[in-house]
């Protein structure tokens, strides 16, 4: 997550749902230099993860949600149309669930606003499950 002006405001999560022997180019591509801050997450939680210990979480009451991105490896088996389905589904899920957590979704930066940037990272092992999302 990035605050206005590119400052680290508190949270970065990278999740690779692909063969662990592959290089993590999508993760480093999306997070850039911040990817070096990632460490193994808690058992049962997101992995890897980074949380800024100095973030003032209570000061954020609104979320500016960027469009969900899909970062694929060069040899990804996920079609462009499946990438679109996955990102739209996840973005809609966030738009539904964020307000239920007590945050207001906004469309511009300002006081009390945290910017949320989300990317799906080469979800090649989830393609079969993703097909269940189509109706």
SS field, number of helical segments: 3
Beta-strand content estimate: 15-25%
- The total strand number stands at 7
Order of helices and strands: EHEEEHEEEH
Assign the structural class, choosing from mainly alpha, mainly beta, alpha/beta, alpha+beta, or little secondary structure: alpha/beta
User: How would you describe the shape?
Assistant: globular
Query: Spans with pLDDT under 50 lasting ≥5 residues?
Result: 1-23, 124-135
User: Can you give the mean pLDDT?
Assistant: 74
Could you characterize what this model shows?
The chain has helices at residues 25-31, 80-100, 127-130; strands at residues 11-13, 49-51, 62-65, 69-71, 104-106, 113-116, 119-121. The chain is globular and about 40 Å long. A three-stranded parallel β-sheet has the order 5-3-6. A two-stranded antiparallel sheet has the order 1-2. A two-stranded parallel sheet has the order 4-7. Helix content is 24%, strand content 17%. It has one domain (4-129). It is of the alpha/beta class. It contains three helices and seven strands.
